[in-house]
Amino acid sequence: MSDITMGQPKVALGVGSLIGDSFSILFSKFIQVVAVAFVPSLIGYLLSGALIGFDVAIGVEEPQFTSAGSGFAFALSAIVNMVVYSFATALLVQLAYDAKLGRPVQIGRYFAPALSALVPLGILSIVVSIIVGLGFALFIVPGLWLYAVFSVMAPAVVIERVGFGGMGRSATLTKEYRWPIAGALLLGILCVVVINLVAGLLMGVIVAVGGTFLGLIIFAAVSTVGAGFVSIVIALIYARLREIKEGVSVDQIASVFD
Fold first, then answer.
1. Are 31 and 38 in contact (CB under 8 A)?
2. Mean pLDDT by groups of 10 residues along the chain of 258 residues
3. How far is CA 241 from the centre of its chain?
4. Which helix (H) or strand (E) holds 1?
5. How far is it, in rounded angstroms, from Cα 104 to Cα 47?
């Protein structure tokens, strides 16, 4: 954590502006954000439901680790969800830049870059999740700091096509800005927590009235809002870091998809 004792960066990250712009993009492109992330999320929940049970997948029931097989199924379910989330993030990163530039959202155009980055992005997401999870298990603050270190790994892989060098690229870009990034991410996480709490409160009623499958669809749709917001925040953090450190504008970043 070498940057903890360093002075404040000369150019501010602008956490308030990043969060404000992220909300603006989310609300102005709400239907598109949900549409982009819903199908991958639903597929992820369906696969998880097949592995560990649909009630467990949507949080209605607690997982039961009664055997080695159930533990393996739960771990495999977690991996599936990470890979699916990575793919949705790869799509939403591109949407965020089009929205930021006032360009029309072209969902079909996002799939080829996302698919080409899926293997390194999925594997690195699993590695980062384990590292950050260990940090949170020890103490919350180290976990949040590590989350900030590797926060822009996904945009780096999708946009710069750095492949398995995404973690190193993220560490380089976030250096000297990790605590401001941690603050922005914490605000984003709190928003997601609120959204998921509301979804959780509604889930029992929906399952009781419409059944587990309907509850699964609604849960997938609601969860995409929170996940979409965090992905937008990360995309804008990456763009801001490129602007500060390398003089690269958002339109130059987005031009790689043209």
1. no
2. 50 91 91 85 79 68 69 79 86 91 87 91 92 85 92 94 95 94 90 75 66 69 82 94 92 79
3. 18
4. none
5. 32
